[in-house]
Write the structure tokens for this entry.
Amino acid sequence: MKLISLLSVIMLFSNSFLLTCSRENNVDNCTPSSLPFTSIETYFGCPNTKYSMDIDLNNTYTIIRNQAQFDQLVTISEDCPINLDLTNYDLIIGKKSLNSGNQNIEYEYFTDDCQTLVLRVTFNQDETLMAPNLTYHALVPKISDSETLQVETVVN
């Protein structure tokens, strides 16, 4: 009888420990998934922002969280007057220096562990001798203080 009681206590303790861990560490149960995002090109119809939008950065990125920051840091062609909704979105914006011409830029936005957000920016290059310094960006739902952002740039 003592053995059955001891086993019951051990099993009860094990089950409650496992349940506690799964509630507290939701990250362990998270599966990688795509996240929604948009761009100024898509949202506002602004053409070719890789050339017509500029920010004073060099092979890095920043997160713009309000219109005042955007107005202060970003210049954009007069052909594209915009008023961003930065109450619901953050703007991830960066610059990348390249050794050859660029055909297009592709974006992926995903989470790999439910707390790390990843923006993968792929520059598809061509053989022209232009060496552009391109602006890339993504409008993403607000990033919380508990989330970490990584920006990966890939040159093809």
